Amino acid sequence: MELLDLSGSSISDSGIGMICNVFPETLLKLLLALCPNITSSGIQFTAAQLPRLELMDFGMTICDPNLEISNEEGNDSDLQRTSNSKLQLIYQKLIIKHSRLKKLSLWGCSGLDALYLNCPQLVDLNINSCRNLHSERLLLQCPNFESVHASGCQDMMVKTIQNQVCYDFSAVENHFPYKRVPDGSKRVRVPYLFSLQPCDEEKKCSRARKRLCAVIST
Q1: Within a 10 A sphere around the Cβ of 108, how many other Cβ atoms?
Q2: Under a CB-based contact definition with an 8 Å cutoff, are residues 97 and 47 in contact?
Q3: Which of 54, 55, 175, 186 could cross-link 103 (Cys pair, CB 3.0–4.6 Å)?
Q4: Transmembrane region positions (predicted)?
Q5: Is the pLDDT of residue 145 over 90?
Q6: How many CB atoms lie within 10 A of CB 76?
Q7: Which region, left, alpha or beta, applies to residue 82 given φ > 0 means left and ψ of -120 to 50 means alpha?
Q8: How far apart are CA 108 and CA 88, in angstroms?
Q9: Dist CA 126 CA 25 (whole Å)
Q10: For residues 124-142, average pLDDT
């Protein structure tokens, strides 16, 4: 089996363990959106145990506990203050390292406050409405990003994403070699089209030019 869609089910982390035991070498796409019993531990376990995965959708699995508690307790201010004091222990962090993952969807996971990704093949990330993610707790080591969906995230988070995934082309200029003009008066930068420098430097610029990523926040 290459595709498994259990979106909207009551599957929990233990159920994910069963899936990983049955399809460790074949599963390519796993869709588990709207499954509220899944935690960040279950998502991390999935990434670690299913090395061939190319697509994971865990949208609305890790929701904001603040909303859930406030809905249950109504307008009781004393209970609300007590619950708020405990929320700092409820938010979750997610760490994923995967060599083949191409698309990851975490839309609506407002219960996440930290995200660390090391996925060299990842091209598309959806963190729409992950409004409690903190910019200082975000690390995206994904050099092949093409698009990051961040609608509903904090402004500072969007800026942090842009800084991490959008290459600064002024850095490319710094890789250009210097060459002295014929009269020896000064040294100028020489474009690689006219440079005889080793190809290693050319590869650096080539990688820089290819790193284009759209951060979609509206």
Answers
A1: 23
A2: yes
A3: 55
A4: none
A5: yes
A6: 12
A7: alpha
A8: 19
A9: 25
A10: 96
CA–CA separation, 88 and 92 (whole Å): 9
On whether the CB atoms of residues 119 and 98 are closer than 8 A, the answer is yes
What distance in Å separates the CA atoms of residue 180 and residue 16, rounded to the nearest whole number? Answer: 63
Lookup result for tokens 């899936």: 19
Res. 84: pLDDT tops 50: no
Please report which confidence band the pLDDT of residue 76 belongs to, taking 50, 70 and 90 as the band edges.
Answer: low
Q: Which among 23, 14, 18, 28 has a CA at the least distance from the CA of 56? A: 28
Beta pairing partners, 214: 147
Residue 27, both tokens: 């599963």
Coil, strand or helix: which one is 164?
helix
Of the candidates 181, 176, 201, the residue with the CA atom closest to the CA atom of residue 191: 176
Distance of CA 201 to the CA centre of its chain: 29
H helices of 89-193, in order, are 155-165, 170-173
What token pair was written down for 162?
């842009």
pLDDT in tens, 21-53: 999 999 999 999 999 999 999 999 999 999 999
Backbone angles phi, psi at 116, to 5 degrees: -130, 115
Coil, strand, or helix at residue 27?
Answer: coil
What are the C-alpha distances in Å from 49 to residues 12, 53, 118, 158, 181? 16, 9, 16, 31, 58
